[in-house]
Amino acid sequence: MLERLKVMLVDDDERIHTIVEHLVQKEGYDFSYAADGEKALQMFALEKPDLIILDVMLPEIDGFEVCRRIRQISNVPIILLSAKGDIVDKSVGFNMGADDYITKPFSPIELTLRIKAIFRRASLKEKSTSSSKNEDSIVIKDLEINNKSFEVQVRGEKVDFTSKEFELLWFMAEHPGQVFTREQLFDNLWGEKYLGSPGTITVFVRKIREKIELDPAHPEYLLTVWGVGYKFCD
Predict the structure, then answer these.
(1) Tell me, what's the pLDDT at 87?
(2) Is residue 77 reached through a cis peptide bond, with omega within 30 degrees of 0 on the bond before it?
(3) CATH of span 131-232
(4) CATH assignment of 6-128?
(5) What are the DNA-binding region positions (predicted)?
(6) Taking the model in full, what pTM does it have?
(7) Which of 208, 231, 99 is closest to 160 using CA atoms?
């Protein structure tokens, strides 16, 4: 019997708790819950969730800090919840390592679709890593990107990437020399129509450059095409 996927919600709003628990269990996932940041960090190691839905405004420790601490030890997918929808707030979340962001009040249907999309991508990763086919990798200069093991090595050293960072890097590296607008990259990264700002791509590009470039201010891999967007080096 296959083990059921587990979703952990971290939110001190009882109404949100009720809504999310209902939709998660309706989809056949296990559910766990923490009402504050301190409890969430304690529960994380015990519960080992496959996905975390994390409110930004929390008692004790806020969601941004919880996200940052979890990201230091795990690449578990994290969806941030926030009543704030401005790009500054979202930029902070993505900088802390969040994979997705949804603004309150949200549609339960939309949240369900986001959860399914994340688990669908995770399933595809598992299938690819268990495949007996030759590893599918891209090697350019001192950078190696492996789409089977979902690993990135820079100058021989493994570098950790969140799932969204990896997806963006792989997509760009698959299309060397091709220029993409932020809107095109944004649509590709989430896979479905998403109510957000393409400016989020700027945050991801900066994070990736910090991990792969010797000098992020003067990149040699992920290049800016001024007035248009970005391209990966030829």
Answers:
(1) 61
(2) no
(3) 1.10.10.10
(4) 3.40.50.2300
(5) 135-234
(6) 0.64
(7) 208
Question: What ranges do the domains of the chain cover?
Answer: 6-128, 131-232
pLDDT digits (tens, 9 = 90+) for 138-174: 888 889 998 877 889 999 899 988 878 888 999 899 8
pLDDT in tens, 188-198: 776 555 545 66
Single-letter amino acid code for the residue at 37? G
Q: Could you tell me which residues are beta bridge partners of residue 224?
A: 230
Joined together, the tokens standing for residue 65 give: 């800090």
